[in-house]
Amino acid sequence: MLHVTVVTHKVHPYIFRLGQTTNWKSRWFSLKNYQEFLREDILLKEWLAKKLKTSHVSDIEIERSVNILNIIIKTARPGILIGRGGEGSQKLKKEIEKKLIDIWKRIPVLKKRPLPKREIKLTIEDIKSPNTNAAVVAQSIADDLEKRIPFRRAMKQVLERVSSQKEVKGVKISISGRLDGSEMARYEWLKSGRIPLQTIRADVDFGQREALTKYGIIGVKVWIYKGDIFEK
What we know:
Elements: H1 13-16, E1 26-27, H2 34-51, E2 57-64, E3 68-75, H3 78-82, H4 87-106, E4 119-126, H5 134-146, H6 151-163, E5 170-177, E6 186-193, E7 202-213, E8 216-228
Parallel strand pairs: 1-2, 3-4
Antiparallel strand pairs: 2-3, 5-6, 5-8, 7-8
Helix pairs in contact: 5-6
InterPro entries: KH_dom-like_a/b, KH_dom_type_2, KH_sf_prok-type, Ribosomal_S3_C_sf, Ribosomal_uS3, Ribosomal_uS3_bac-typ, Ribosomal_uS3_C, Ribosomal_uS3_CS
Family: Belongs to the universal ribosomal protein uS3 family.
Pfam family, one: Ribosomal_S3_C
């Protein structure tokens, strides 16, 4: 008699709904340079995420065409990135161009190839409702933890603020690590409303961030449910 054991797996809420209610964050197609462009995207996004940590960036999207590379940064604090008279965005654009040259040199396959001539475009988009964006909410909790605010107070304050938004149907916040300096790491969570993780048409926004504290890294995860999407 054959026995089949079914093992469940954790699936990222964004990947689970990709193509249904969510879209790809890197939008381009290439048969010849697929591996190189993919590695370039990953390294560039990691560098930008570290550099723009204080700007409350939720997403970094990349679009490519023949001679154009468009980098879209979605942030809750666009004024910090743009700067006075656009000086901040121009400075960031030049730093991105230098970083792309450095990345191109670091990839072994591309060392012998000339750097492609392409126009770099930087698009900064404002997040209209930061309290309903999971990545921004997770970053705000991480900032509070780094300021040594008690984790329960930080979680409750954010939970109440997010739950008070009209479009929010449910929210869940979880943190894990050496909370309040305890010797053993543990997991704590709070929830309000419902979070249908198995419903594909459910508009569930997910974000995770890390807080670097005196006792180590504390992980923060946030789920925000905004209702169902029947047409996309």
